Amino acid sequence: MNLIREKNYNLIQNIIYIARCSFAFDKSIVLTLLIIIPFGIIIPVFDIIFPKIAVELLTKKADVFTILLVIGSISILLTLLTGVYRYMSEARESRLTSFIRYFRKKIFLKALSCKYCISESTEFNTKREAALMVSYYSRSAVQICLRVPALIIDIACFLLYSSILSTLNIGIMVYLIASAIIVYMFARQETICAEHTKEDLAKARRKFNYVIRQCQDIQTAKDIRIYNMSGWLTARMKKLLDDLLVIAHIRSKQGYMSQISGAVMDLIRDGIAYTCLIIMTIKGNIGLGDFMLYFGAITGFSNWVVQIIYHIKSLRIYNIDINALRTYLDIPDETNESQNTNSLSLKNGADIQFEHVSFRYPEASHDIIHDISFHIHNGEHIALVGLNGSGKTTLVKLMTGLYEPQKGTIYINGNDIRTLNREQIFSAYSIVFQDFMILPATLGENIALKPEHKVDKKRASDALIHAGLYDDFKRRGITLSSYMTHTLSKKGILLSGGEKQKLMLARALYKNAPFLVLDEPTSALDPLAEKNIYEKYRTICKEKTALFISHRLASTQFSDRIFLLKDGNIIESGTHDELYKANGEYARLYKVQSHYYNTYKEKEGNGYGF
Amino acid sequence: MASKFKSFYKNYIISKRLAHTVCELYPRYIPMTIIRHIAGRLSAFTGIYVSTMILSELAVHSPIRPLIIRSIILLFAACILRLINTFIEKKAEVIREFSYEMMDCKNAEKMMDLDYQDIEGDYLRRLRERIDTDNLWGSGIYGAFINTDYMIYQCINIIVSAAMAASVISTLFHAESLISAVFFISLTLIIIFNTAMQFYYNKKCFALQDKISSERDNIEDTDLLNEFMDYRCFSDTDIKEAKLYNAEELIYKYLDYGKQFYTDTANSLAKEEGKYYMTGDVFRIISKCLCYLFITIMAAISKNAVAIGMVIRYVICIDEMTDSFLALLRDIQSFLKTAKRHDSTFEYLDMKNSMYHGKLPVEKRSDNEYEIEFRNVSFKYPGNNEYSIRNLSLKLRIGEKMAIVGKNGSGKTTMIKLLCRLYDPQEGEILLNGIDIRKFDYKEYMQLFSIVFQDFALLDFSIAENVAVSDNYDKENIEECLKLAGFSGHEIDAFCGKKYDENGILLSGGEKQKIAIARALYKNSAFILLDEPTASLDPVAEYEVYSAFNEITKNKTAVYISHRLSSCRFCNDIIVFDNGRIVQRGNHDSLIKDKDSLYYKLWTAQAKYYSNS
């Protein structure tokens, strides 16, 4: 539930954070961001000054030369300023595009650097998705870099216009600010309402996206055709789209009030402003040029207020996004936390002991492993069997320190694993998991999981031979420096499920750790290939401690001992013959599986009570 | 020259089609936009009209009261027009916001309509990658909607501002023809020059974008960070391996692969885009300044004095007009760009089904007397040199249970795929009651088969919907099928998985497999084909399914593929596949007698671990 602490920094803290990140990423960004601010302030002022000057020149009946000189020089100045400003803005954007990459990399690496039990949780994944979303899709970090200078420009212009208007009439200024506030209140109402529909919208959108993705998914394509789902899915898709549009239209209707209030406020503003200005001009208080200046300032003024409100509003939203990003990035890294580091010697093999270990998944209501104790002696070969969900893989993760038990102690060669650092624990194990990790790297790198120059070629070839891949690869012309997958080379190697499984075995053999764990290593293999692995098993595990997990019980026969795991505990242990004779749970399972094979031999029929 | 004309013509055709697509997705969008911009522009120009009118009247000291009243009436009208504009805009905004989704629907329908052999092919994969990058650069269908809006805006703005400035343009032209000529010629030059420059930069951007999007073909430049991030080459289950094998150093090595290329091209792209926008802005400012300069000069030296307010009005109008001209040309260019980036989408929508689909109805038979025959069938997967099925001849006997066994990659699953026409064989034919299956109506033909593939897919809808593959279902029937498949413990209206409904339940692999079997049963077809139906089940669950097997396949023709040979024992007919051929056929007892046979080897490989001798 609460593996990950939500972060709630305020806007200022987050702006500083982003500034620091951008500084770390590229120092010149911060500089360009600051340089453009004065340009941003000066350029809009020309909008109100230009008509004023034109009108004044005409009322004063200036000659052509003066007009040419005055307007010409202003024009040149304005053109130059605009050119520089735009160029700087774009150069800034180009750098910020790569800024996203900076966060993406951080987000990716977090999954590797934090504790496994956290990175595996659904909570972590949700947070990760959220962090990715804000850094990549809504680009909030980049937006903050862009919006903060924009806000500074707006505030400066607001002050500038205020000072112009204050020379005219304080009353008008008060009205303008008041009307901006009223419009803002309506707009706020609108956002609050939008918040309500936001959830419905997100829900409807998720459903819609799910269906769309499934319709185009290659995995689902077969089933769609065989069960003729297209009509059904199309109807569902259209219905969900309609739902979306209905919600969105409801949301947009809530915007009418602020639009109407804005229009009415502007109408009143223009009415008052014109009347005032007309009267003042008639009275001779201001000239025609000033009329244009003030009128421009009045209409422009509310524009700045709207802009400021808008920018603050969006910065607030980005602030929430950045908090999501920081919630994720602030997840503590896994440290080699053990202060009293024991040194683990694996020279003489590995010996594993569990003492009253219990483990429960963070969101679960009961222990998946409950008060388990056992001892695997150095050089022993153990088969771990049990039904789906009995906790076999969890046990492996506990053993390797990927999970930390809530209760009990685990020892490697007599050392409590809490006193060892991660690398030491990991170095004790070679593990073949059920899922296959193939990186877009060379074959050698995939076996060693080290960069090319650190790959021991001889050892890698040996591992391939033992895993039963060498001859086949040689025939296909695959060498250790061939790229795997099509990511980096069109001619990259693609492997079948069975071959991948064998490659995982080669990886474990290459590592050559004293404790070998094989988790369902033959599930993707056909009977002959499976038999091959079984036959090699003895040679592979020679002089090693080994744990073989399978729900095909055949594997148990070449193990020294069998552990039968049920409901989080070992309920039976012993050799195959012992357990079979004991006629308990193991015997029952074994009979279920051997049933069909044996009835062939014992023609009398279902000799085992089935 | 001819080729240039050809490419121009092609662009024209694509743009036309894109515009059609906009109309097709939301027919009212264009009329709505036209009305909205007319209202919007009239409102804006009324505002300008009022302020300049006041200025002129003040200059000649007109009476105040009628002036104020007139102004307020006009302002009121402008306010109403503005509200009409925003009212329609709100609606149009929603349409634009969901334009991607509308297009997604179209694409998804197309996908489901294509033949399976095409969607698995390399061509479509590459095309879809192209569509993705094209949408990124061309902003997709949203770009088409927004650019349509812009272009309509510019056109209306040109018309309205030209109409307002028309009278004075003619008077001025009359009075100061030389200066006016210089003025208008320079404006035209600006427009031409600006367009040329923007065209140039646009082309450069386009080329750079292409360079980046061809990145995936140009494999040395692939940005692996993206591949890692998008789970294309690293999934979250890989984290444990990376940790246990201490693979950080290797991952770091590849994480920055292609980074330099990516940043460099992205930077130069942004620079070109920057220049593009910069030229646009600078020219707009220049034309604005020119307007002020010329009109002020003309007003100053003009013999028949022009009112001061008029001067400002004309400056604004002419400025708006040139501005819109510049913008219109830019918007046309972006529309063209968007259209070009839609080429791939159109190519996809135009894809033809490569398989022949007949129209022959399938005879409905209550006695399920259907006979399937493979006659000299050979097949290789597209892009593969080796045959997966070689000269296969085989009859499925009605009502019989048949098992197919063999090593990985021996063609077992491929045979099923041919049978249900996910692929068509290159040689030979498959017959249903003596007629080539290609001649039958595909949907009717598929009614004959219930298939559970090894890699079946369930949707995250409710269990009942998954079983029935429809919104309307017979509850009792569903419950019965689920029971037969050995599924229990969950309500049938519970959602499978959390992706569609967050209150869904997470099912285990075994439970999903049972639902998939129930789905096959619910369909109640003449043939039932099961491909490794117990792969993810544990021994006990596996046993349950086996025990129910006879009940499940009662009066149907059943084909059963398995690695676990124990399953074959139900079947009176076992076929052994090797290398795309049938090497043995018969029942278990007869097959096992030949000690050199593949079947014997396969059987003993597994059975020896279970013999208690």
Biggest sheet record of chain A:
6 strands, mixed
Q: What is the alpha-carbon Rg of chain A in Å?
A: 36 Å
Question: For the record, what CATH class of the largest domain in chain B applies?
Answer: Mainly Alpha
Q: How far apart are the termini of chain B?
A: 87 Å
Give the % helix of chain A. 55-70%
Low-confidence stretches of chain A: 600-610
Q: Count the beta strands of chain A.
A: 10
Shape of chain A: elongated
How is the main sheet of chain B built?
A: 6 strands, mixed
Which structural category do the helix and sheet elements of chain A fall into? Answer: alpha/beta
* Beta-strand segment tally of chain B: 10
Strand order of the largest sheet of chain B: 6-7-8-3-9-10
Report the average pLDDT across residues of chain A: 84
Polypeptide structure, described:
The complex is a heterodimer of chains A (about 600) and B (about 625). In chain A, the strands form two sheets. Chain A has a six-stranded mixed β-sheet, with helices on both faces. By secondary structure, chain A is α/β, with parallel strands linked by helices. The longest helix of chain A is centred in the first third of the chain and has 50 residues, at about 65-115. In chain A, strand 9 (about 560-565) and strand 10 form a beta hairpin. Chain A is built from 20 helices and ten strands. Among the domains of chain A are: about 1-170 and about 295-335, no CATH class; about 170-180 and about 190-285. In chain A, helix 1 crosses helix 2, helix 5 (about 120-135) runs antiparallel to helix 11 (about 290-330) and helix 7 (about 170-215) packs antiparallel against helix 10. Chain B folds into three domains: about 1-225 and about 260-350, ABC transporter transmembrane region fold (Up-down Bundle); about 370-450 and about 525-613, 3-Layer(aba) Sandwich (Rossmann fold); about 455-525, no CATH class. Chain B has a six-stranded mixed β-sheet with strand order 6-7-8-3-9-10. Chain B has a four-stranded antiparallel β-sheet with strand order 2-1-4-5, covered by helices on one side. At the A-B interface, helix 2, helix 3, helix 5, helix 7 and helix 8 of A face helix 2, helix 3, helix 4, helix 9 and helix 10 of B.
